[in-house]
Design a protein that fits this description.
single chain; about 400 residues; alpha/beta; 8-stranded parallel sheet; 7-stranded mixed sheet; globular; binds N-(iminomethyl)-L-glutamic acid; binds fe (iii) ion
Amino acid sequence: MKRMFTDCRLVAMHTGIELTGGYQVIENAMIAVENGAITGVGYDLPMDGFECHSLENRLVTPGFIDSHTHLVFAGNRATEFEQRLNGASYQEIAKAGGGILSTVKTTREASIEHLVELAIPRAQSLIRDGVTTIEIKSGYGLTVEDELKMLRAAKMIAKNVNVNITTTLLGAHALPPEYNHNADAYIDIVCNEMIPAAAEENLADAVDVFCETMAFTPAQMSRVFDAALKHGLHIKGHTEQLSNLGGSALAARMGALSVDHIEYLDESGVKALAEHGTVATLLPGAFYFLRETQKPPIDLLRKHQVPMTVATDFNPGTSPFARLTLMMNMASTLFGLTTKETLYGVTRHAAQATGLLAKGQIAEGFDADFAVWNVETPAEISYQIGLSPLHARYLKGMIAND
Ligand code: NIG
Ligand code: FE
């Protein structure tokens, strides 16, 4: 199938082009697509044998990638929201058996069909913001069977919603009650049973760990990453969210695609990311919802040219926000990111953070996933919230509006 998209106002994002705002809007551009991949971008491309589709001078960006979500779970944590408003902290609630473990309880009890049913409207909310790829983590099962159930549910979403899914095993998210005071024994299960089982069934593309005083130590994270790498899986971390344990630098040294949250990252950590090509994932929804005051070190990330990505972290405890454009808006208003930085953060840098290197750019050789917008300028995409200016999404060159 050969398709030519004409009359595009193409947002080209190439490193090296330093125009106003750091991106270029190319008027009257054409995009040639063959078998789902972009084979040419430019003007006056030869049209022979191509089916022609005019995008009527609308703005075209790469399809957005939400590179960090916990989209699959049952139950909600509105009660904890209230408890926090009455003065309890996220850590205190977790210590008392709530937090992640309360979602573990409801998720274990849910059938796979119910988990998929609950996740579909969340995915539908994301795609209304031009999202064509969603990363989904497990982490609310914490047994081999329940983690695999979550990963299977995540993959099943793509049968109901037209979107690419990439999955991450987050078995080391919290210590399950069965292993109270025996974290190393649980990490053994993650390394010796969970990761091999997920790899065997091809259920995970990556492995994540929550490295924090309330979760797992850098040494435990490193054992999990060793097992993941041995099985050919990518690695990434929830690191430096609430304190600085040095998890980000360790993850970077081990080859992590991304380290996520990173409010407490210091300059030596930032340098480690720069040195090892690890992406810094910013999750302003969690920062906002937990009413944190320590911001991620944006100026240091810029100084050391670390690529930044912006994601929803959609989850019931710290970021119940299924809108990626809202996160772009928050990354700008709360952390000071420019429009160029947020756009890169949901496209080419998000592709790097998920290891999906054929996505995130409109250029020859890349997948023809794009979003078409009813806006004049890229800034309008994240400027207003609630009135999605999306006109259409294309996956592999085919229109995908549901
Ligand atoms: O990304 N930080 C750890 N994990 C999730 C929160 C999970 C939860 O509270 O349910 C996060 O913020
Ligand atoms: Fe998260």
